[in-house]
Amino acid sequence: MDQRHPDDHEHVPRPVVGIGNDYPPSFELAEHQHRRGQLLYAASGVVAVSTPQGAWVAPPERAVWIPGGTPHAVRMVGAVQTRSVLVDQAVYPGLARSCRVLGVSPLLRQLLVEAAHVPIEYEEAARDGLVMRLLVAEIERAPLIPLAVPFPRHAALASRCHAFVEQPQAHVTIDQWADALAMNRRRFTRLFRQETGMSFAQWRQQACLSAALPRLAAGEAITTIALDLGYDGPANFSTMFKRALGVSPSRYRP
C-alpha cells in the first residue's frame, strides 16, 4: 500500500479515492480542509477530530465523517493506521453535510482496508469500481454514534464549553453554568439545546467520553481517568461508559 495524502488526489477523475497512512504516536495534523468529504477510520489507535463547530473522537469500530469544505484538525492517540476514503459529494449528494461519528461494520472495515490498495485511477466499470460503490453504500447506512461535542455560537456559552472540554467535570450542574452566565435555569436550558442540539446533561456526558477515550487508548488507568473527570470512583464511570457505548472502558485500553 502506498502512503497517500488527501490533498494529492483532490482532482483525480474518480468519485471515490481510498487513502491509507501510518502515523507515529501523538502526531497532529494542523487545521486543513478537503474539497471532498472524508470518512476517517483508524484501523489501530484513536483519532480525535476538531472543527470550529465541535469535537469528534473515533475509537476502534468507529469512524469520523467530515463533509467537504470543513476546516478540521486531527490528533492521533497512540500509533495510528488510518484507512479512509475521499468522496465527491456532488456525485453522492445523499452523504451527510455535518460531521458525525459512524459505526464501522465488519464489511465497511474490510472495504476501507481494500480501498487503500485500489489504484487511484481504477476502472469504474470493473471490480474496483464495484468496491468503491459498495463502500459508499455502507457509509450511507452506517449507524450514527453519539460521540459528538458540538460547540455553540453564543460567545459566552462557547467560551465555557471550550474550557469544559479542556477540563471536564462530570458533576458540574446546570445551575452553576446558568449562574455564571447570569441566566435563569429555564433560559439557560433553552439556549443550550438551541445552540448545541442536545441537553446540557447529554453534552456534558459526551464531553467526558471524548476526554476519556484518548486517555484510555494511551493506556492510562481507568481509576485515574474516572477521578480526574469527577466521578466518585471507577464503578460509576464504567457504568456511564458502558451505558453510552455498549462496552466497558477496558475495551479501549491497549
TrEMBL record:
Matches recorded under Gene3D superfamilies: Homeodomain-like, Jelly Rolls
InterPro entries the UniProt entry points to: AraC-bd, Homeodomain-like_sf, HTH_AraC, RmlC-like_jellyroll, RmlC_Cupin_sf, Tscrpt_reg_AraC-type_HTH
Matches recorded under Pfam families: AraC_binding, HTH_18
Keyword Chaperone: no
Keyword vocabulary terms for this entry: Activator, DNA-binding, Repressor, Transcription, Transcription regulation
Name of the protein described by the UniProt record: HTH araC/xylS-type domain-containing protein
Organism: Sphingobium yanoikuyae ATCC 51230
Residue stretches making up the HTH araC/xylS-type domain: 159-254
Domain of life assignment: Bacteria
PROSITE patterns: HTH_ARAC_FAMILY_2
Single GO term (MF): sequence-specific DNA binding
